[in-house]
Write a structure and sequence with these properties.
CATH superfamily: Ribokinase
Shape: globular
Radius of gyration: 18 Å
Strand content: 15-25%
Structural class: alpha/beta
Oligomer: single chain
Number of strands: 14
Strand order of the largest sheet: 4-1-9-10-11-12-13-14
CATH architecture: 3-Layer(aba) Sandwich
CATH topology: UDP-N-acetylmuramoyl-L-alanine:D-glutamate ligase
């Protein structure tokens, strides 16, 4: 069994800055790095590096062929991915400060050119019970969600970025939500300052069907299902760049659940993988492989 990730692919332009640019300010960066990115691409890479069989559907322009090659080199199946000759690839302008925090400006490009006919073509290759992973960086998401439910797929949604449009979608058929506090508060229509456990409960009250995995940054993560509740602390590391940490967590979490690990085991591996990722620069380049995660966990257990 493989998982289909129907998601974004970006070219990331990452600028190192002393502080984030404010309104009316012109600020010189100290470094520029161009990398592969996009939440979809990052999560596919994390899934593959964690050992999961993964297919990727999505769209890039001719300028994004290297993104496709990167996925292929890491073992991701890209047969369903489309290369457009009429639109440029999506890109992200990322600022990173000395503490490792980031802020991101997105240009949708080819990610926002996905149409229903392409979605139908992708779903013609899917079978009932297959897994599908979605984020919110591509067009046609509402149609993809309804198609996934109609075709009997196990649907995992990372509702990032949360938008007014997404909040109007019917998410009641989603099987697993992986989301942060801001996204959870928006979906549950509550204050994001709510206690994390109460926030996770609020999401499940609003959407009773999905299992909820709430990511809390330095405070770890919470898993809340019908009969399972687990908490995973974050590992303490010296962070240099948090870009892609959440995507790394998501990929490793799903890879663990797919191979039959318990939620607690899957979250521990995901926490370790994201801890490694934040000690490295970039999004896609920071994602560790499974051997690195296992070595990290051996060291922290000593």
């Amino acid at each position: 069994m493989a998982i289909l990730n129907f998601g974004s692919l970006n070219i990331d332009y990452t600028y190192a800055v002393d502080h984030f640019v404010t309104a009316g300010e012109t600020l010189a960066s100290t470094n520029l790095v161009v990398n592969a990115g996009g939440k979809g691409l990052n999560q596919s890479l994390a899934l593959a590096k964690a050992g999961a069989p993964v297919k990727h559907a999505g769209m890039v322009g001719e300028d994004g062929r290297f993104l496709v090659e990167l996925l292929q080199d890491e073992g991701v199946n890209t047969e369903l991915l489309h290369i457009s000759d009429t639109v440029r690839s999506g890109n992200a302008i990322i600022q990173t400060d000395p503490s490792g925090e980031n802020c991101i400006l997105l240009y949708g490009g080819a990610n926002q050119a996905i149409e229903e006919t392409y979605v139908d073509e992708v779903f013609s290759h899917m079978e009932q019970g297959d897994w599908i992973l979605l984020q919110n960086e591509i067009s046609c998401l509402d149609y993809i969600i309804s198609s996934a439910i109609r075709n009997g797929l196990r649907l995992i949604l990372n509702p990032s970025p949360v938008t007014p449009e997404l909040l109007r979608y019917d998410l009641s058929g989603v099987d697993l939500l992986v989301l942060n506090e801001i996204e959870a508060a928006a979906i549950a229509e509550v204050d994001s300052d709510l206690d994390p456990a109460a926030l996770a409960q609020a999401v499940r009250k609003r959407l009773p069907h999905p299992t909820v995995v709430l990511t809390l940054g330095r405070r770890g993560s919470i898993y809340l299902g019908d009969d399972i509740e687990a908490h995973q602390d974050a590992f303490t590391v010296d962070a240099v760049d948090t870009t892609g940490a959440g995507d790394t967590f998501t990929g490793y979490l799903l890879a663990g659940l797919m191979r039959g690990d318990t939620p607690a085991q899957s979250m521990r591996n995901a926490a370790a993988a994201s801890a490694i990722a934040v000690t490295r620069h970039g999004a896609a380049p920071s994602i560790p492989n499974r051997a690195e995660v296992e070595e990290f966990l051996r060291k922290v257990a000593q």
